[in-house]
Amino acid sequence: MNNSATLMNIDFPISFTKMSGAGNDFIIIDHRAPLIPMEYQPEFVKKVCRRSFSVGADGLIFIENTDKTAIADFRWRFYNADGSVAEMCGNGARCAARFAYTHGIADASMSFETLAGVIEAQVHSDDTVQLRMTSPHDFRTELKLILDGRERSLSFVNTGVPHAVLFMDADEHIPVVEWGKTIRFHPLFQPAGTNVNFVQKVGEDTIKVRTYERGVEDETMACGTGAVASALVATINGLAVSPVQIITSGGEYLTITFDLQAGPQAKDVFLQGPARIVYNGKLTAESLC
Fold first, then answer.
1. 89 is known as an active-site residue
2. Centroid of chain to Cα 144
3. 145 and 255: one domain?
4. β-sheet bridge partners, residue 257
5. Is it the case that residue 34 has pLDDT exceeding 90?
6. CATH number of the domain that residue 187 is part of
7. Co-location of 177 and 50 in the same domain
């Protein structure tokens, strides 16, 4: 039996919440009482994340029970829109935290389990959420590659997921999808590939970031882990100091604070930004058609 046929045997309707984290949008499902077998989740995600044909989203988050109850309130299972699993997503994590708080799954101060480690979150009285991120690692600088016939220098850091960071002039045209796809699949970053951030300095301790996201395979309106990576690299290059303000592709603001130390290494990394509830709904079997 193929996956699509099996998916049609799921009990519908399925309640969900559509949320936006600075323009990065997600479908969130309370999955503490399992609804969809794990082996069929990637196909389910690909179908409901289709824009125009289903709900449409950059990713889908299942909120699940955790075995690590001493250190976490719940566990998430995060999927990109193409059905691939991602270790971490800053914008998605803020949305997951607010969802958990509004559904009584966790208090305003919470911790939850991700593949990147346990994330701490604080839900504020407005629509903002602050995350304590896991420690960034695998800093690499002065990486060289050819783009459009010209050698470019870029940096790399893993902020829960891999990120390449390329600085551009303030008035320079950025072919985000074309260059993003080239860098994402470049041999330098295989076998896992990388997300790609194009950064322009627009003010004192303020940068604009446009991100090509692995798994979405397109530019997204925001990327939280990419914002963190860009802020860290900007500071390493002497272009900003913490706290760094990020202007996303969608025009929203994210605030990144951290303690950058020699190495380089960064401690006490926090990401703060909006996590908005767009609507609540119920998926029918026709959402998979």
1. yes
2. 26
3. yes
4. 270
5. yes
6. 3.10.310.10
7. no
Task: Output the average pLDDT for the chain.
Answer: 95
Domain that holds residue 217: 137-272
Q: Which of 118, 119, 228 lies closest to 163, judged by CA?
A: 228
Q: Is the dihedral of CA 220, 222, 225, 226 positive or negative?
A: positive
Token pair belonging to 271 = 């990401």
Q: Rounded to whole angstroms, how far apart are CA atoms 284 and 280?
A: 13
The DSSP letter of residue 287 is G
The two tokens of residue 122 are 């604080």
Q: Taking each helix axis as running N to C, give the angle between helix 224-236 and helix 90-102, from 0 to 180 degrees, rounded to the nearest 10.
A: 130
Tell me whether residue 289 is one of the annotated catalytic residues.
no
Which residue of the set 49, 95, 223, 289 is catalytic?
223
Pull the structure tokens for residue 203: 């003010």
> How large is the average pLDDT for residues 70-88?
96
**Are 90 and 157 part of one and the same domain?**
no
Consecutive H or E run containing 250: none
Strand 74-80 to 59-64 pairing:
antiparallel
Report DSSP state, residue 223: -
For Cα atoms 13, 17, 20, give the angle at the middle one, nearest 5 degrees: 150
* Position 5 confidence tier, pLDDT thresholds 50, 70, 90: low
Work out how many domains the chain is built from and give that number.
2
Are the C-beta atoms of residues 198 and 166 closer than 8 Å to each other? yes
Residues 220 and 265 both lie in one domain: yes
Q: Which of 49, 89, 95, 289 is catalytic?
A: 89
Task: Judge if 181 and 123 occupy the same domain.
Answer: no
Output Rg (C-alpha) for the chain, integer angstroms: 19
